[in-house]
């Protein structure tokens, strides 16, 4: 498997046309056909259904597609990193973060970039359902995550960064929007819920279920997504309601949704940054100093 094969596969997946894919890559159509054929031979599956009239991805092709994108993106990032180092960059910092409205991370990165402009910073968004902090190899210097994701281990140090308050996210004009603190949770029994999937964010999912269980009802869940934007889009379209960190509601027009903060002690998620005590990367040591200088004073 090589990058030319991956590029050809992605081009055909995008255009669903071998001729157009060849033009896109400035190569003969026979080259695209050969690279797809070789890739299928190596994988042992058909990636496309091909007839005289159309080209379609097979189920195997659809499964391989996101991985092919990751391969090409990783190659681009690697090439860019090498170029940066060749041109004078003086180190590399690798961060992993769950999707979170993390102003603390933004602030620290801004300071770090101003003080160390020659150090490459690589940020990867990861699912909060992934167990990143396990024994063995760790590709990241710091993990910005939920406190409940931390392993029971003395191997890590942490700083609590912020707390995300949960709220009801409703379509604009929803009857419950004006309830505010007077909202009766029992009114939610008849609502259609659109949630972040349990696989993507098990901590948020558990918080939602605990909230509903406390008021003795099970939410009528009509759909679940692995990304926040899809949830917000469906809510703004009036397809249902959700419970999310209220800071995420800022990602969509305020005229499309209504936010009702949940007035309950457990309706929040604590976020933190974690790193291994055996921190060897010199760039990471510089970033750690900034984290410690900027850590919130009002969070214990």
Automatic annotation (TrEMBL):
GO molecular-function term, one example from the UniProt record: DNA binding
Coiled-coil stretches noted in the UniProt entry, renumbered to this chain: none
GO cellular component: protein-DNA complex
PROSITE patterns: HTH_LYSR (PS50931)
Domain HTH lysR-type: 1-58
InterPro entries: LysR_HTH_N, LysR_subst-bd, WH-like_DNA-bd_sf, WH_DNA-bd_sf
Family matches, as SUPFAM superfamilies: Periplasmic binding protein-like II, Winged helix' DNA-binding domain
Record keywords, A-Z: DNA-binding, Transcription, Transcription regulation
Family label: Belongs to the LysR transcriptional regulatory family.
Protein name according to UniProt: LysR family transcriptional regulator
Species the sequence originates in: Zhenpiania hominis
């Amino acid at each position: 498997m090589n990058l030319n094969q991956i590029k050809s596969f992605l081009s055909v997946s995008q255009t669903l046309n071998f001729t157009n894919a060849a033009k896109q890559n400035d190569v003969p159509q026979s080259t695209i056909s050969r690279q797809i054929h070789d890739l299928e031979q190596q994988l042992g599956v058909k990636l496309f259904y091909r007839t005289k009239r159309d080209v379609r991805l097979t189920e195997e092709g659809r499964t391989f597609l996101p991985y092919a994108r990751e391969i090409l993106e990783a190659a681009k990032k690697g090439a860019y990193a090498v170029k940066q180092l060749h041109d004078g960059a003086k180190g590399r910092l690798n961060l992993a973060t769950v999707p979170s409205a993390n102003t603390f991370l933004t602030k620290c990165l801004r300071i770090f970039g101003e003080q160390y402009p020659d150090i490459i910073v690589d940020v990867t968004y990861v699912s909060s359902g992934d167990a990143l902090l396990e024994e063995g190899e760790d590709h990241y210097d710091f993990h910005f995550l939920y406190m409940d994701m931390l392993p029971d281990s003395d191997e890590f140090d942490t700083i609590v960064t912020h707390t995300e308050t949960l709220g009801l996210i409703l379509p604009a004009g929803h009857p419950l929007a004006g309830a505010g603190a007077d909202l009766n949770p029992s009114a939610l029994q008849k609502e259609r819920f659109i949630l972040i999937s349990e696989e993507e964010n098990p901590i948020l999912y558990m918080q939602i279920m605990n909230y509903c269980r406390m008021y003795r009802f099970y939410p009528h869940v009509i759909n679940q997504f692995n990304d926040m934007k899809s949830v917000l889009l469906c809510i703004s379209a009036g397809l249902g309601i959700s419970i999310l960190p209220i800071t995420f509601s800022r990602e969509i027009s305020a005229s499309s949704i209504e936010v009702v903060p949940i007035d309950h002690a457990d309706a929040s998620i604590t976020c933190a940054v974690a790193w291994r005590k055996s921190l060897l990367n010199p760039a990471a040591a510089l970033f750690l100093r900034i984290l410690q200088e900027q850590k919130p004073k009002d969070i214990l």
